[in-house]
Design brief:
It is a single chain. By secondary structure, this protein is α/β, with parallel strands linked by helices. Helix content is 43%, strand content 14%. The strands form five sheets. A four-stranded parallel sheet has the order 4-3-9-10, sandwiched between helices. A four-stranded antiparallel sheet has the order 5-6-7-8, covered by helices on one side. Strands 12-11-13 form a three-stranded mixed sheet. The radius of gyration is 25 Å and the shape is globular. The two termini are 43 Å apart. 45% of the residues are buried.
Length: 483
């Protein structure tokens, strides 16, 4: 049985779905104010692994990932750039979608936008006012009264008395703060401000305005998943105030809301959270100029979702080298024994190695899962060395099936081009031949570097580059890819 670490209870909990055999998941998606970087994409990749494992385990998954396409940051940045706010938001929504596709992240069941659910959000505000959990300041702003909700602070295990505010710093301004009865109350509905575009506000019982940041997720999760659902996820930085406020709104409305909270850790650079404000952003477009996208996926997929990923100059070369050990085996296995079909590699928990299943069921312990993968890679290479075609085919199935759970199957439609795997065995043979030729050049280049003959080493690298071969130097030596 799958156990996941529940952030609210701070312990491992067995998955106990609201509806047996089905799992409903809500993931806080992008606020589309700018281009995505790997810090933004970690949650999507982490939850993609969870969803793949749930589906492989026989669950029917309904996965909702929202798009925040209206908020203070979007309005501010679009105005500075001279864009319509909605065009600005859509531009970066498309960039996020392309980034998800590039990394092989499966599409959600539903991907609702905040602006597409204004009526749901107005209905929720009205419900909270009627229940005595919210109030109108008479100026078009509506606030949630945190004192009215007895379990406020329970998600993050904080006392209200110890809190200064329950708003994100970026959401605080004088106009919003002015009407609060208590500075710890948070905005549900914001009155339109002078100078804001008229298209960025909607009619409501309290005047023209727009939703507060937290409102959309309570309204949309209920719309698509019902009053109670199984897993709410997001980055660890969203626990407070965003997720705490979501829970307060939903509980105030009388909804049970999320049974379990799953949060992923940050991507860090030099120990600091990767963010635009720190100036250490690494965009996917920049990263994939010198490395295949699968290396980025490997780097994000093979660290436990609750552990921080320290991103440095060796991250992608190391990830690329690790994946190429598996992709090389799969390419050779296909050449020797033929390619296993998608149905053959779709092994369930009763067919996969017990140690792999145990690792994945233990809060998605990918380190333990990788250890099992390496054992079967070793067995596959041994079968190749012995010309044991049946053994090779069996290990191909197991290795690819386990890698597919991580979204990293080299023979999948997503990655087969980067693995050098063609439509059939012929493609693998061509890759093997190219691998041998490039390996010879890289060996000669390594000798030149060892002799400090830098001109010769650069010339060999330039020849490969002219042929469309990209070379990356890492701690374990040079690796290569086409393109």
């Amino acid at each position: 049985m799958l156990h996941l670490y529940d952030s609210k209870s701070a312990r491992l909990q067995p998955l106990n779905p609201v509806t047996p055999g089905q799992v409903g998941i809500y993931l806080c998606g992008a606020t589309v104010q700018g281009s995505p970087h790997v810090g933004h994409l970690r949650a999507a990749v982490s939850f993609d692994t969870l969803i793949r494992w749930l589906r492989r385990s026989g669950y029917r998954v309904t996965y909702v990932r929202n798009v925040t396409d209206i908020d203070d940051k979007i309005l501010g940045k679009s105005a500075q750039a001279g864009w319509d706010w909605w065009a600005w938001a859509y531009r970066f929504e498309r960039e996020f979608t392309n980034a998800y596709d590039t990394l092989g992240v499966q599409a959600p069941t539903y991907e609702p936008r905040a602006t597409g659910h204004i009526l749901d959000q107005i209905d929720l505000v009205r419900r909270l006012i009627d229940a005595g959990h919210a109030y109108n300041d008479g100026r078009g702003n509506v606030y949630f009264d945190v004192h009215s909700q007895g379990d406020y602070g329970s998600l993050t295990r904080q006392r209200l008395a110890d809190m200064r505010t329950t708003e994100d710093d970026a959401q605080i301004d004088e106009a919003v703060e002015a009407g609060k009865r208590d500075p710890r109350d948070f905005a549900l509905w914001k009155a339109t401000k002078p100078g804001e575009p008229t298209t960025a506000s909607w009619d409501s019982p309290w005047g023209r305005g727009r939703p507060g940041w937290h409102l959309e997720c309570s309204a949309m999760s209920r719309r698509y998943l019902g009053d109670e659902f199984d897993i709410h996820g997001g980055g660890i930085d969203l626990r407070f105030p965003h997720h705490e406020n979501e829970q307060a709104q939903s509980h105030g409305a009388g909804w049970a809301f999320a049974r379990m909270w799953v949060h992923n850790a940050w991507v860090t650079t030099k120990g600091e959270k990767m963010s635009k404000s720190l100036g250490n952003v690494l965009s996917l477009k920049a990263l994939t100029r010198d490395h295949p996208a699968v290396a980025v996926r490997w780097a994000l997929s093979t660290v436990h979702h609750r552990s921080a990923i320290e991103w440095g100059p060796d991250t992608l070369p190391d990830a690329r080298a690790a994946w190429e050990k598996f992709s090389s085996f799969v390419a050779r296995a296909i050449e020797v024994a033929g390619e296993a079909s998608a149905e053959e590699i779709a092994l369930g928990p009763d067919q996969l190695p017990d140690a792999f299943v145990a690792a994945m069921d233990d809060d998605l312990n990918v380190a333990g899962a990788l250890a099992v993968l390496h054992e079967h890679l070793k067995a596959g290479n041994a079968a190749l060395a012995c010309a044991d075609a049946r053994g090779v085919f069996r290990q191909q199935i197991l290795v690819r099936s386990m890698l597919d759970v991580l979204g990293l199957d080299p023979a999948s439609e997503q990655w087969r081009g980067q693995a050098g795997i063609g439509a059939g065995a012929g493609g693998a043979a061509e890759h093997a031949a190219l691998d041998a030729l490039v390996a010879a050049v890289l060996s000669e280049r390594a000798d030149a570097r060892a002799a400090k003959d830098w001109a010769r080493a650069d010339d060999l690298r330039d020849r490969l580059s002219a042929a469309g071969i990209t070379v990356a130097d890492g701690r374990d030596g040079a690796t290569w890819s086409v393109g």
